[in-house]
Write a structure and sequence with these properties.
Two copies of one chain form a homodimer. Chain A has five helices and four strands, in the order H-H-H-E-H-E-E-H-E. By secondary structure, chain A is an alpha+beta fold. The first copy, chain A, has a four-stranded antiparallel β-sheet with strand order 2-3-1-4. In chain A, strand 2 and strand 3 form a beta hairpin. Chains A and B meet through helix 1, strand 1, helix 4, strand 2 and strand 4 of A and helix 1, strand 1, helix 3, strand 2 and strand 3 of B. Strand 4 of chain A pairs antiparallel with strand 2 of chain B, so a sheet runs across the interface. Chains A, B: It holds the Pfam family ABM. Chains A, B: InterPro entries: ABM_dom, Dimeric_a/b-barrel.
Chain lengths: ~130, ~130
């Protein structure tokens, strides 16, 4: 379990910048090139769409894992059916640019089934605090 | 403070339903109160509360990492100020029971600052898909 996490290289310069600027406003313009990033995508999945959503996610994963910059991915399912986000994907990419390029390619590929009726919140993150 | 972290009970019946529907057959017999779990907590943090939220999170982390069953934790910050969830915590615990016990203890400790004005969605998850 931990081995997947430790595969993520932390770009120290970028990390220092982030921790020093928790006001955040400068981040969007500064961080856009070549640092490892974590994609976190939270899905609001109706109970009767869970199996469909997982199948669509698998199709996307099979495509994305072949793209440049892909590191790893994990799909999490809530232990409780009452949780707002029944599925949460956590993936590592070598850079925001690599992720954006892969997602654009995925969109054009036409291989991924639509996620009708499924809301999701996807964003790129950087780790700002860990165990000390 | 206790409301910051989820206190949801883990229901075996619900879990069996989920695993049966998603074909996660190996999990059904294993998922009880003694499996490693992933806590994912997504925070909707106004920009001017970001530093406060991180400090409160650090206080909680320092307490929780000393509790039985704690494995590791990571706080993620969005690269974009437009993302719905500016902070996302991803932590590993040895079991749902260990997590619940630690959270209850944290709530009673009184050491953690309040997270006023900060909405969050916290739930326990299990990994159902990884790289193949």
């Amino acid at each position: 379990m931990t081995s997947l996490w430790t595969r993520r290289a932390i770009h120290l310069a970028a990390l220092s910048f982030l921790t020093a600027n928790l006001g955040v406003s400068a981040m969007a313009s500064e961080i856009n090139t070549n640092i490892p990033v974590t994609l976190i995508n939270s899905f609001e999945v109706p109970e009767d769409r869970l199996a469909d959503a997982v199948r669509s996610w698998e199709q996307a994963r099979d495509f994305l894992k072949e793209q440049p910059g892909y590191i790893t991915t994990r799909l999490h399912q809530s232990l409780s059916p009452q949780a707002k986000f029944q599925l949460v994907n956590v993936a590592l990419w070598e850079s925001p640019d690599a992720y954006q390029a892969a997602i654009q390619k995925l969109g054009k590929s036409g291989i991924v089934a639509e996620f009708k009726g499924i809301s999701f919140h996807a964003a790129l993150y950087t780790v700002i605090r860990e165990d000390e």
